[in-house]
TrEMBL record:
InterPro entries documented for this protein: 6-PGluconate_DH-like_C_sf, 6PGD_dom2, NAD(P)-bd_dom_sf, UDP-Glc/GDP-Man, UDP-Glc/GDP-Man_DH_C, UDP-Glc/GDP-Man_DH_C_sf, UDP-Glc/GDP-Man_DH_dimer, UDP-Glc/GDP-Man_DH_N
EC number: 1.1.1.22
Binding residue positions for NAD(+): 29, 34, 83, 118, 145, 256, 314
One Pfam family hit: UDPG_MGDP_dh
Organism: Tessaracoccus bendigoensis DSM 12906
MF terms in GO: NAD binding; UDP-glucose 6-dehydrogenase activity
Protein known as: UDP-glucose 6-dehydrogenase
Length: 388
């Protein structure tokens, strides 16, 4: 079977590696530098399992930038291109997905298309109407940045938005590549599968927002956040997972998925979804205000990344805090090893950690780090447990 995976980000590359264990896979991306790294079996993404599998495992994997070379004679095309949220339209920008599908069907009209990119509810059905006769399905991903391949090797569930034998075959391919013997598989209709993705991520965002609001209350009242969280978590219906306070939910998925679900609710009564979106703004307002109450002249931002072990800082919550601090005239300096530029969003990037620690009056970090133990009196964080 010839499989093509379009998009070599953490979703696309982890899917390509999973499938390439047993099938010939061609990864295609417009980023030539990324393709060159994959060809050399070097991961362009900070992900330990991806790094190990690319370097040491036998994979039937090639990487190209040429659409004709990639898509011709393809049996299966997995689409994992970016769908950023467009605030002007209140919807995902699905143009990259639409382009891949049209291009793939031009070169291989009989190919089965599986969309892994997150899309608005109803998008797949609309795409089917534009391409009558084509087999197009949606299969949501539930992967963590920095552990994407691990989550494909040990999937919590596999959901495929096609209840026919074609959908079952794709699910079987994903199970085949997993390390676990038993994997929950759910075959649904396409629009239900799209809904599962958005509602799952919005629930996670709701949980983050809930424990952040608990922490805000404790901070304002002078209470011990950890004691309250531990007591609440003893209820088995609530549990002690995903409860570590932060500067707000962020990263590539949760902010845009919650806003997209809110847009899909435009003609449906709701209260919770809009509250989740609003709560994230309120949390950043509180964090910025709490930092400003310390009257700093120079605030150091230690790492822009959202998660430990990830090199991605797209839409990280600390950037919202930074914008609020900048608006109040505070000087910001940034320590982020992933940046090679001298400035980021108008703020100076400091490559030397010791200089960064010396110059900052307050050091803001979403997650604790042993790098800052010697300047603990300068550190501002809401992190309790030292984990995501």
């Amino acid at each position: 079977m010839k499989i093509v995976v379009a998009g070599a980000g953490y979703v696309g590359l982890s899917n390509a590696v999973i499938l390439a264990q047993h099938h010939h896979v061609t990864a295609i991306d417009t980023d030539a530098a990324k393709i060159e790294l994959i060809t050399r079996r070097v991961s362009p993404i900070d992900d330990p399992e991806l790094t190990e599998y690319l370097a040491n495992r036998p994979l039937h994997l090639e990487a190209v930038t040429d659409p004709e070379l990639a898509y011709t004679a393809a049996d299966l095309v997995v689409v994992a291109t970016p769908t950023d949220y467009d605030p002007q339209t209140s919807y995902f920008d699905t143009s990259s997905v639409e382009l891949v599908v049209a291009t793939a069907l031009t070169y291989s009209p009989g190919a089965n298309i599986v969309i892994k990119s997150t899309v608005p509810v109803g998008f797949t059905e609309e795409l089917r109407q534009r391409h009558p006769g084509a087999t197009i399905m949606f299969s949501p991903e539930f992967l963590r940045e920095g552990r994407a391949l691990y989550d494909n090797l040990h999937p919590s569930r596999i959901v495929v938005g096609d209840r026919s034998a074609v959908g079952r075959r794709f699910a079987d391919l994903m199970v085949e590549g997993a390390d676990d013997d038993v994997v929950p598989v759910l075959l649904t209709d396409s629009t239900e599968a799209e809904s599962i993705k958005l509602f799952a991520n919005t629930y996670l965002a709701l949980r983050v927002a809930y424990f952040n609001e608990l922490d805000t209350y404790a901070a304002v009242r002078g209470l011990d956040t950890a004691q309250i969280i531990e007591g609440v978590g003893l209820d088995p219906r609530i549990g002690s997972h995903y409860n570590n306070p932060s500067f707000g939910y962020g990263g590539y998925c949760l902010p845009k998925d919650t806003k997209q679900l809110l847009a899909n609710y435009s003609e449906v009564p709701q209260n919770l979804v809009v509250a989740v979106v609003d709560a994230n703004r309120t949390r950043k307002d509180f964090i910025a205000g709490d930092i400003l109450s310390r009257n700093p002249e120079v605030v150091g931002i230690y790492r822009l990344t959202m998660k430990t072990g990830s090199d991605n800082f797209r839409s990280s919550s600390v950037q919202g805090v930074m914008r609020r601090l900048s608006a109040e005239g505070v000087t910001l300096i940034i320590y982020e090893p992933g940046l090679t530029e001298e400035t980021f969003s108008g703020s100076e990037v400091i490559a030397d950690l010791e200089e960064f620690k010396r110059r900052a009056d307050v050091i803001v970090t979403n997650r604790q780090s042993s790098d800052l133990d010697d300047v603990a009196d300068k550190v501002y964080t809401r992190d309790i447990y030292g984990r995501d």
